[in-house]
Amino acid sequence: MLDRFIFFRDVIDHVVSLDKDLKVFALTLEEWVRVCELHAFLKLFYDVTNTFSASKHPTSNLYFDGVWRIHKKLIDVTNGPLSSLSSMVKPMKDKFDKYWFDYSLVLSCAAVLDPRLKLGRVENCYEKLFGEVYAKKMVERVRNTLFDLFDEYKDVHTASSPNLATSSGAPSISTVVGSNAEQMDEIHDYKVFLSKRRKADNVKSELEIYLEEKNPDVTEKCDVLSYWNKNSVRYPNLACLARDILTIPISTVPSESSFSMGKKLINPWRASLGQKTIEALACSEDWLRAKGLNLGSSKFFGYGELSVDDDEEEEEDDECLSIE
User: Fold this and answer.
1) Within 13 Å, how many C-alpha atoms sit on residue 171's CB side?
2) Residue 119 CA to its chain's centroid (Å)
3) SS3 track for the chain
4) What are φ and ψ of residue 51, in 5° steps?
5) Contact indicator for 44, 73 with CB cutoff of 8 Å
6) Quick check: 79 and 54 in contact, CB under 8 A?
7) How many CB atoms within 10 Å of residue 114?
8) In this structure, is the dihedral angle defined by the CA atoms of residues 45, 76, 121 and 138, taken in order, positive or negative?
9) pLDDT at 257
């Protein structure tokens, strides 16, 4: 609404100046400036909201940058010179601090899994908000969380893979040291101890190699899911971690919309559909929409309304069935 209002500013001023009854609603230059300030302020919220609540399930790496942009805007306006927005922004910042000040660690890790951003972007954002000292603490916190998650995925992958030493005919650890329960527990503890010393290990982990690689240009378009799909051979464990983190929903809108489509799929004419049939209809609709097809008037998915001719055809079909 504000976009169109500002776009037609000259037209509005001209029409108002010609009509004596509308002159009382004419905006002064100062009021126009306030409208433009409000427009610039709210546009950020509009863009971030559209990103978070997109119908095509945005990946979670968008969370950190979107929340940070809003956080920084609120701080800049609150700490900046007094303006027409000051009285509105201060209560907004109080509510933001109450619900959003503690950034989600897992979703912050998702930002690191964007090859264009990694830890550098997280550190830069925190530094602009809180200064260099606090930024280093937060980056270290995110880094440690990501490494802990990676260790879990690496351990699971290692446990599921075959024992190379045993399969090749070489003596296993249990054969050399012993096979009683106490010795096996000590061996397990030793393995855990070695896994925690990843920084001292000469062989770098997948995560360390990924973080040390040169970032692509931040202005380039990048499909994060496609990136990890292509690099799943180079980073098998890290790709599994990225798959699970990037699929975390950052908005409840897609899940709510899936429930609201129930009335469209299960109408009075299809009240006895089976579970698999309903699932097939929902998936087919989603796939066809993803290809850009307009299903607004499709009766197959329950969006069309029956016309008089359709009613007559249904009555004729019923009569034929009764006669048979």
Assistant:
1) 7
2) 18
3) CHHHHHHCHHHHHHHHHHCCCCHHHCCCHHHHHHHHHHHHHHHHHHHHHHHHCCCCCCCCCHHHHHHHHHHHHHHHHHHCCCCCCHHHHHHHHHHHHHHCCCCCHHHHHHHHCCCCCHHHHHHHHHHHHHCHHHHHHHHHHHHHHHHHHHHHHHHHHHHHCCCHHHHCCCCCHHHHHCCCHHHHHHHHHHHHHHHHCCCCCCCCCHHHHHHHCCCCCCCCCCCHHHHHHHCCCCCHHHHHHHHHHHCCCCCCHHHHHHHHCHHHHCCHHHCCCCHHHHHHHHHHHHHHHHCCCCCCCCCCCCCCCCCHHHHHHHHHHHHHHHHC
4) -70, -45
5) yes
6) no
7) 23
8) negative
9) 61
11-24 tens-digit pLDDT? 999 999 898 888 88
Q: What is the mean pLDDT of the chain?
A: 79
- pLDDT for 6 beyond 70: yes
pTM: 0.65
Q: How far is CA 101 from CA 75, 95, 96, 293, in A?
A: 12, 9, 6, 41
Q: What is the largest CA-CA distance in the chain?
A: 101
- Model confidence over 185-222: pLDDT tens digits? 777 777 777 666 654 555 788 999 999 998 888 888 88
- Count of other CB atoms within 10 angstroms of residue 228: 19
| pLDDT tens sequence across 265-307 | 667 776 777 888 888 887 887 788 777 776 654 444 444 444 4
Write the single-letter amino acid at 302. G
Distances, alpha carbon 305 to alpha carbons 277, 299, 312, in Å: 21, 7, 14
